[in-house]
Amino acid sequence: MTEVGEKGTNLSGGQKQRISLARAVYSQSDIYLLDDPLSALDPVVGSRVFRDVIGNRGMLSNKTRIMVCNQGHYLHNMDKLVLVDGGRIKVYDKLEDLITDPDSPRNFREALEQRQSRDQSKAGTSNEDMAENDTVGRITQEELGRSTKTGWQLLRNLLRLTQWPALTGVLVFVAAACAFAFEQIWIKEWTDSSSRAASSSAVDQLPWVQVLVSLCIIDVALRVVGSVLLSLSAKRLSRSIHNEMLEHVLRSPVSFFDASPRGRILNRFSADMDFVDSRSFLSAKQAVQNTLITLAKVAVIGTQSPVVLGVTAVVIVLAAYGMNLAVKASHCARFFESVATSRLLQHVTETVDALSSVRTYGVAGRFRSHFCRLTDESMRGFSGFGTAYRFTRAVTSTAGFVVVVCTLLASTVFAGPDGLDPSSVGLALSSATSVPLALMTLCVMLFNVLQMIVSFERCVEYTELPPESDLQPTWSEEQKAAVEKILFSWPSEGKVEFQGYSASYRPGVLPNVITSLTFIVNPKEKIGVVGRTGAGKSSLVLALLRMLRASEGRILIDNVDIAGVPLRKLRRSITVIPQDPSLVRGTLRMNLDPTNSHSDREIWQCLEKAHLSKVVSSDPRGLLMETADGGSNLSVGQRQLVCLARALLRGTKVLLLDEATSQMDGDTDQLIQVALRDAFAQCTLFTIAHRIHTVLDYDRILVLEDGKVKEFDSVPHLLSDKSSMFYSMAIEAGINSVRRKPELISTTL
Fold first, then answer.
1. Keywords for this entry (predicted)?
2. pTM here?
């Protein structure tokens, strides 16, 4: 039961395609619609998959297969050919008809003239079961369903985030509770004084009234001030914790996002932050206020009947013990509910992303059942929390009843022969009868605070996420000035040098994915990076971006060690065009120039070079055309062209392409290759190539095997050496010879 992670994190593009194809085969349908299922596979593996699965002797030989194909060497296996070009459709019964048709793309004929990929037994020895991105062990981590922090740690974080208003507000409410207690005692003393005096005038009563009014005003004023301070602290808490969460999440390494599903992150920023935002002020204010008022009432009762104070202390201890058990149970239930809600949101996001596949394979019922199971699991935690809450209410109600009964008995039955004066009995009973309601209200508020504390703790966890190493190196003022002077125009040439570089996703825990890489790339050189699946090609890109952690050696760009370059500067100086491009919701202009630092004219020039200007100009909104989430309203090839245009616009000295033209048709691929040579003639270019045809005119080829440099030389030299690994890969790809002129380089469709 191998875990692949969210959206196939642990899989390469080729592995994702093969899994999708295998899933389609298992569906046992009569008609199969295959949307370019072999584009991310190298020629050897692609030929094997086509032969064993899609071809006339494969597993789907007795099924109807409609296959969108960008590889011309598969066309001779097709029973019918449908050419779609410029919105027009042409149907051919024979391959010869397509070849002789002058309207057919030129690269069809060139690709068909090449020798077809040979099915060699050694192809099975390619390391195709390894993940291209070498993500060994990088799987989704389980979310903890329990508290990991002590109360003091949470209190320290709370005071750090709210600063002085929270503590000051609590102290103000303590003063308000004292004022409330003095009010009750003052009323009792006033009553006693009036009963002892034979007669009293209004003038005699004036001091008593003035003091009582003053106490009431002080009580109300202190409560208002305390509420304002707690409101400010709640606002500061929400802003501070959200900003810290966002900052730490954005600065987290890629491994964090591989191990954390989107639903989990979404739950922290939505449900948990909602509890902190909406309940922190009201729950904290009422909990503090009710706790202090209850204590004040008990203290007032104790001044009139000390015996009741002792009994109340025992009752409070017993009630606190019962509440402690309930709070622990509710704490676990709340954590369980939060984790279950994260799983539920994760399932919802994954279902929405794969909705077309879910409906296509007719498994909506299974996904619906799983959704119901996850909902039941989430409600199970909520039910446990509710049970603990009801138990606590029963405990507090019983405790309040005992206090009232004890006060009543102490004031009447056990009052002694002289008894208590009426004012003391009235004060004690009036205070005691309000205790049960105060305790129940306190119970409700404490549980609201508990919910907020659980959410607060989960949010605090995200404020302590470790950032990427050396995100901003620490330098002295002299070092900082010297480095800024060097990096102001860095990199100016684009020279890249690896010096015994080894790296791992977790040095000391996981093995190195690239080992002892030593080579030099001169400025403006075009380097093709090839190798079997799992050879470490994508890891090379991650190393240049410092997404891998170096275990030894270093990488120099223009003689500057990138380990000492701030990550923001480093990644702004390198442009990457990924194999699986993704855009954000907004306008095309925002995706091309998010900093709004280029003119429309410059953007249109880049779109023209990327052969995307016709698509954009056909939309009446032009550069303001909308892009959906992930760029779903554009084809994969068009999204890759957008990434290419963005790279052209940035104009960096180092460009990394991860098979950026794999989803394009052959004509567009050839045009883009020419555009790359022209537009990036002054740049150092690394191209990770699964299709060797795209790098035959590059200056040199870097062949990787098991994370090590196997070969590094020019194309003619490598092809002239029949013992070289590149030569064998070229033969497997059906390449007979190399012609150095770019316009004559053979490409596949």
1. ATP-binding, Membrane, Nucleotide-binding, Repeat, Transmembrane, Transmembrane helix, Transport
2. 0.63
